[in-house]
Amino acid sequence: MKANYSTEERFLLLGFSDWPSLQPVLFALVLLCYLLTLTGNSVLVLLTVRDPRLHTPMYYFLCHLALVDAGFTTSVVPPLLANLRGPALWLPRSHCMAQLCASLALGSAECVLLAVMALDRAAAVCRPLRYAGLASPRLCRALASASWLGGLTNAVAQTALLAERPLCGPHLLDHFICELPALLKLACGGDGDTTENQMFAARVVILLLPSAVILASYGAVARAVCCMRSSGGRRRAVGTCGSHLTSVCLFYGSAIYTYLQPAQRYNQARGKFVSLFYTVVTPALNPLIYTLRNKEVKGAARRLLWSLGRGQAVQ
């Protein structure tokens, strides 16, 4: 039976306190990933904005993904580092709800944006002659705006539903952030089943609907590739889609595991490490995934370095 309702308006984030010997290692790894995330995504945005050759729909959406990743990991990492470095971290309920809303908004925006990027790649591979007309600047702006708006709408709805639920004391949150499944473990009283069903339905929509779009897009890509007679065309198509598919698998695999299971079955110890992967590791890997074998981005980086070196030589 649940404990009495708590009047305490703060949460104690336990983080990785069960593994004290692991905390210094995690601190170093998380800090490294955070620096890589900020550096890699900032460079990607800078190159996309400065280089006219990257002013295409694919890089336009990639620029938005870089902004989402930088914001997403920033909403998580600072309190995580404080938790790993110092004493137990107490968060007021208002701060906890704000962090939850921010991370949900950015994470949900990434879900939608990855689906939009899959549609863009399917259009480029399956309709190459009509691609310029299909992926117009106006449509690209509308799709990017829909990604941000969809993420914000989902976050506000989920946070508002959770805020209506009383939480049982003591307010010990067995996580390193205020994440929805961990907070639902503390929920009690009120019309619990109805609220949790509504929240679960919202998570299903924001995760499975974009997943269906991605699967349909890559199904169309696979059919188009099979019909190609040129091996060079196949290689270009696979190269266009391979990096995005890797990013999708990394993000969606861990996010679906975390959010699409009932609160009663949520394993908090395992959930912390899964959350660490999609909130910290994946945003750090994305710039590498998208640029490691990308000739256009490498060329843009060389041109930027050359122009900077030339400017210093003139001075």
Automatic annotation (TrEMBL):
Q: How does it sit in the membrane?
A: Multi-pass membrane protein
> What GO molecular-function term can you cite, just one?
olfactory receptor activity
Coiled-coil stretches: none
TM region(s), chain numbering: 25-47, 59-77, 97-119, 139-157, 200-225, 237-260, 272-292
Keyword Transmembrane appears in the UniProt entry: yes
Q: Which PROSITE patterns match?
A: G_PROTEIN_RECEP_F1_2
The subcellular localization recorded is: Cell membrane
Which cellular component, as a GO term, is one annotated location?
Answer: plasma membrane
Protein name in the entry = Putative olfactory receptor 2I1
